[in-house]
Write a structure and sequence with these properties.
The protein is of the alpha/beta class. It has a single domain, classed as Aldolase class I (TIM Barrel). The protein has nine helices and twelve strands. The strands form three sheets. Strands 7-6-5-4-1-12-11-10 form an eight-stranded parallel β-sheet. It has a two-stranded antiparallel ribbon with strand order 2-3. It has a two-stranded antiparallel sheet with strand order 8-9. Strand 10, helix 6 and strand 11 form a beta-alpha-beta unit. The longest helix is centred in the N-terminal third of the chain and has 13 residues. The protein is globular and about 40 Å long. It starts with 5 loop residues before the first strand and ends with a helix.
């Protein structure tokens, strides 16, 4: 049974990939973080492919998070994940077409759940409904769920606790993990993973990108 949630380092700021993502990864590739990702916006596809190749050649797991809400753009993002040979596709609203494409290309699919809108994303919706939808997505073959917990307009504490306890699949808490208080909650609830992107660029966990990654990884492992 997993006890330590995985940190997914997102080379993104305000839900867009930063222009110097490759440079940052090169400086931090020997950090404790195993999972690295970015968004579908911010870099040309050629640079995205090169960055993913860089990530995978360093022995890391490559993640693409797509902020899209209609089927056409969600499928476009999924095809981008295929082109980049990424390991995990996070985001998109759930569509059977996206799920099928991921299965055909051995990509683990973790869609959004709930009512998601704007960019950076905001989450709203009924918790019971989100849990039921998540279970239905898992039954259809999704690997897990991308939960925008700290972007939730309601009681996110209740959402996180119930969702992780009631959805029997990997759950990633994505977005706005920017304090030790939230890391403490993540440690207590123990989801499969969580993302940090903008908070590292804002120096919320220190004043050096590499040191912040290792600080967070060490903090999560502390009892």
């Amino acid at each position: 049974m997993q006890t330590n949630p995985h940190l997914i380092v997102m080379l993104t700021y305000n839900d867009k990939t930063v222009l110097n993502a490759s440079e940052i990864f090169e400086k931090c590739k020997n950090s404790s973080a195993e999972y690295w990702g970015f968004k579908e916006e911010g870099l040309p596809i050629s640079q995205m492919k090169n960055l993913y190749n860089h990530i995978k050649s360093a022995g890391k797991t490559a993640v693409l998070e797509v902020v899209a809400y209609d089927e056409e753009n969600c499928l476009k993002g999924a095809k981008m994940a295929v082109d980049c040979d990424c390991d995990i596709l996070m985001g998109t609203m759930y569509f059977d077409s996206v799920n099928k494409l991921c299965h055909e290309n051995n990509i683990k699919y973790m869609p959004f759940v709930g009512d998601v809108y704007e960019r950076p994303s905001i989450l709203s919706g009924d918790i019971d409904d989100m849990i039921n939808k998540a279970k239905s997505y898992i039954e259809k073959g999704a690997y897990g769920i991308d939960l925008l917990a700290y972007r939730y307009t309601g009681d996110y504490h209740d959402l996180i606790k119930r969702f992780v306890n009631e959805v029997n699949a990997p759950v990633c808490l994505a977005g706005s993990v920017n304090s030790y208080e939230r890391l403490d909650e993540i440690k207590k609830i123990s989801p499969w993973a969580f993302t940090i992107g903008s908070a590292f660029f804002d120096d919320d966990f220190g004043d050096n990108f590499l040191d912040q990654i290792n600080t967070v990884c060490d903090y999560i492992k502390e009892s």
